[in-house]
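Now read these lines:
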Amino acid sequence: MVATNTTPATAPPDAAGPKAGHPGRFGLSPQAEGMLALLLTVAIWAAFALSARALSASSLLPADAALLRFGVPLLVLLPALWRRRRRIAAVRPGVALKIVCGAGVPFFLAAMHGGALTSAAFVGSIVPGMVPLFVSAIMVRRGHGLPRGTQPVGLALIAAGVVALVWRYVVPVDTDVLAGSGILLVASGLWALYTVGLREVDLDPVGSIGLLCLPSFAVIGVLVLTGVLPTGIAHAAGSDIALFLVVQGLGVGLCAGLLYAFAIRRLGAERSSVVGSLSPVAVVLLAVPLLGESPTPAVLIGVPLITAGVVLANRRPRPKVPADA
């Protein structure tokens, strides 16, 4: 997902990392390490959007993909999460609810269902693209003031891009695409809630993953065991299980959070979020060879508008320098 200026407290700027110009642990400069981590994160975000669309054509059901998404990180990080159990348990219930609802089962099922009704381009553009607009609305409601600088222009471009994406499905009405777009907007709003919640939690990236995945896995497990959500993982194709295990469990569930936190430490929040805005473009480009989707004129107009809007919405106004400084 494309991040906004609402950077988690657990991901400080690059001051926490090696000094500028000093080679990092891989023989690269801190900036090169950060850029590499960020490009890998963008690729994982794009894979999430592609998998949301591909789920409808696989032998897995949404509940199966959710079990892999939240279960694999818990299994891999179990020893580390056990050491952090007291800090995770100490998180305030209200903050934990924002994180669990914002990126847990409600978000996941909304993104998967919305992707099944639309296209990978819609998932990769609407879900991350609308996050800055929803976050700004939350911040204004909290009394943090209106957006400044280039941010209002960016938010307007994001809204215009989403309208460009869905406009051709209004006349004549395509109920599936419009319903899917509405569900993706709900998913984006939930992710914005998660983004705001991350600012309020005092956990490192590993602890944050545990706070999200543990209750989410428990909820999806109860829904499956009680029959509320059907499951077909016992009869699913091994290739589908392996694909979603890698993309959703290891990729989105584990690697994306850790890599993005690392990138922010090396590059800072603003540079990371601007490069991260390439995620919608990557989704559109990858959907052509992998899913056989052809970009429509609406996609060719809407995606660049959303991408430009995310870049402008993530630019922080420069502080005014006194004339006598």
The radius of gyration is 19 Å.
